[in-house]
Structure formats: C-alpha cells, structure tokens
C-alpha cells in the first residue's frame, strides 16, 4: 500500500506563526511536523510515499529529497495551481501503482494503527474507508454518522450540525478506482465534492478510533502539539 500526504495548502490560519515555510514544515522540537507523519508511516511498514505539494514545494523537496535519509522512498506530485484536496490527489495519480492508497492530511496527526485500519478496509471489501475520531466539539470538523455495520450514512463537512460526535479524522484508504470520481486539472474538494459523490455509488466505511488526534491548522493546536511532543505523546 502506498501513502499520499496532502501538503499543498496555503496554511493561511497559521501564517502568524509559520510565515516562512509551508504549514506541514512547521517545527516541533526542531523537526518539521511532516517528519513525524513520515516517521509514523515508516514505523508502520509503509515506505512508498507520495507528497502532493504545491505552495513552497521546493522547501519540502529540499528537506526530504528522495526520502532515503528518512528510511522511505518519496515521490513528488507538484501542482502549478491550487487544486484542493481532491484535485491534488488526482494530480498524483500517475505516481500511484498500488491497488489501495492511504491518504493523509499534512496538517493532522491521528495516531491510529494504519495496519488495523487496512485490515478493516480489506475485511469489508471497501473501496473507501475513512478514519473517524470521537470529539466533544465537532464545530471545526466534518461530522459523520454510521450505521451498525460501520457504513457512513451521513457526512457533513464543517459548519452544519449533525447529531454525532464522530468527526472525519482526515485519513482515508481508497481503492485506486475511486480516482475516477475526481475531475482532472480542476480545484476539487475531497471532503465537499468527492466524498458526497462516492456515497451515491459506493459504501464508505468508518474506522473508529480513540487514539491521539490533533489538527495544527490553528495556532493554539500547533502549540499544543509541540507541548504534547515534549511530554512524549508523539514519537
């Protein structure tokens, strides 16, 4: 299984803290946030990684190069214009050769067991599996409801209220065939456009987890991640 990390966003909400580098390269204990994601993938046995980059992509490439020094193999899909999360994934299609693809957001650390999630994905013969996290305040996140078989029945991306405390954790495993639902060379949101479209034709399964979760998109959570790392909560 290959992994794609989406690292092409502008990171506007974090500009006051990180204005000289792309958001996934924000430092925590002198290491970029993205390095923690890559290290977690490596420790899970996932070493074939594609970085879907755009904004300040050269900064990322100069640091990680081909990934050899980090024990992985890294390829780069560079977007010349902002393509959104779905468009960036479609743009990386030419580099994807495995049947199943693990997708991560480059500003989110969700300490799930990737291998357990993959086993769940295969057991359910799923074409699209979404990692879910239970939280008290759902207002910042996509909210998800599942039935008793863990099939996603409702998905609302931010701002709209749904009677659920499960959120979209920003980690997905998809069968490569799902890419046919994404238009090429267009700005497409994975959350707002692709997932609702897929739900019309395929089952999306929710993999529920209580593991550590944080989105560093706002300054207070970026600082929290730095503190949590110092306390040994992130390796």
TrEMBL record:
<feature type="domain" description="Nucleotidyl transferase">
    <location>
        <begin position="3"/>
        <end position="229"/>
    </location>
</feature>
<dbReference type="InterPro" id="IPR050486">
    <property type="entry name" value="Mannose-1P_guanyltransferase"/>
</dbReference>
<protein>
    <submittedName>
        <fullName>Nucleoside-diphosphate-sugar pyrophosphorylase</fullName>
    </submittedName>
</protein>
<dbReference type="Pfam" id="PF00483">
    <property type="entry name" value="NTP_transferase"/>
</dbReference>
<dbReference type="InterPro" id="IPR005835">
    <property type="entry name" value="NTP_transferase_dom"/>
</dbReference>
<dbReference type="InterPro" id="IPR029044">
    <property type="entry name" value="Nucleotide-diphossugar_trans"/>
</dbReference>
């Amino acid at each position: 299984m290959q992994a794609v990390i989406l690292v092409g966003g502008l990171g506007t909400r974090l500009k006051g803290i990180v204005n000289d580098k792309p958001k996934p390269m924000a430092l925590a204990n002198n290491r970029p946030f993205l390095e923690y994601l890559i290290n977690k993938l490596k420790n899970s046995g996932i070493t074939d990684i594609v970085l879907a980059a755009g904004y300040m992509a050269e900064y990322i490439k100069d640091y990680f190069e081909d990934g050899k020094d980090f024990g992985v193999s890294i390829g780069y899909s560079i977007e010349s214009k902002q393509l959104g999360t779905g468009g960036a994934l479609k743009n990386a299609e030419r580099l994807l050769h495995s049947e199943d693809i693990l997708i991560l957001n480059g500003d989110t650390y969700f300490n799930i067991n990737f291998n357990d999630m993959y086993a769940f994905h295969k057991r359910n013969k799923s074409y699209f599996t979404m990692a879910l996290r239970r939280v008290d305040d759902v207002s910042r996140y996509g909210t998800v409801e599942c039935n008793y078989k863990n099939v996603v029945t409702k998905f609302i991306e931010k701002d709209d209220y749904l009677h659920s405390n499960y959120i979209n954790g920003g980690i997905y495993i998809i069968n490569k065939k799902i890419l046919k639902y994404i238009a090429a060379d267009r700005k497409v949101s994975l959350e707002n456009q692709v997932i609702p479209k897929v739900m019309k034709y395929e089952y999306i399964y929710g993999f529920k987890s209580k593991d550590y979760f944080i989105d560093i998109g706002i300054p207070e959570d970026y600082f929290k991640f730095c503190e949590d790392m110092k306390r040994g909560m992130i390796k």
